[in-house]
Amino acid sequence: TPSRSRSATRTPKPSSGWGSQLRVWAAVSSKPLSVEVSSVAVSTTTGMVAFTANVNSDAGVNGSVVVNQRNFDITRFPTSFDDFLGGRAFRGGGQELRLEAMPGNQFQRYSATFREPYLFDSRFGLTSSLYYFDRNFLEYDESRFGTRQTIDYRLDNPYWRVNTSVRVEGVDITIPTQALAYTPRSISEDAGQSFL
């Protein structure tokens, strides 16, 4: 007896990291419990590059460059230059990589964040970030550099997670010579380098 063919299209949730549509074809015959299913996952754009420029009365002039890849693969090294052109290098593992650079004349920030949502194919996730921050105030200059490590666990409900974080940070506060006369004592006492 002839079989019937059915098809359906499903869009996975954004948290899956695919950003794609899953097309499923099923051939159903007249025999009981005889179903043949084949599927094709069609990947779509998961990367983003953004440029901005700002003028602020408090933070001065700055710009920013953000590169974000939501389907990153830290182990997929390129084997040729065509892998870069074709978008196959470091892509396809469901991880996330975000690079941000914000240079400026009074305020600047640089950071790199990597996230593995399913660490070792488990419910645990890992988010690791490095950052550098520098801000010039009227009374003092503040610089911060450090790292933050976060472990989370996905509960039975996919919308709920618990997490814990550890941050290691170095802080450097310097007071310009021309600001020594009016810098508050509470700030001048904390001037120098500290480790948190």
Q: How do the SSEs run, as a string of H and E?
A: EEEEEHEEEEEHE
- What is the straight-line distance between the termini? 74 Å
Order of strands across the main sheet: 4-5-6-7-8-9-10-11
The coarse overall form would be elongated
Strand content: over 45%
Radius of gyration computed on alpha carbons: 25 Å
Entry summary:
With 196 residues, this protein is mainly beta. The protein has helices at 81-85, 185-188, and strands at residues 4-10, 21-28, 35-42, 47-56, 60-72, 95-102, 107-116, 124-136, 141-154, 161-174, 192-195. The strands form 2 sheets. It has an 8-stranded antiparallel β-sheet with strand order 4-5-6-7-8-9-10-11, with no helix packed on it.
Spell out the blueprint of helices and strands.
Layout: E1 4-10, E2 21-28, E3 35-42, E4 47-56, E5 60-72, H1 81-85, E6 95-102, E7 107-116, E8 124-136, E9 141-154, E10 161-174, H2 185-188, E11 192-195
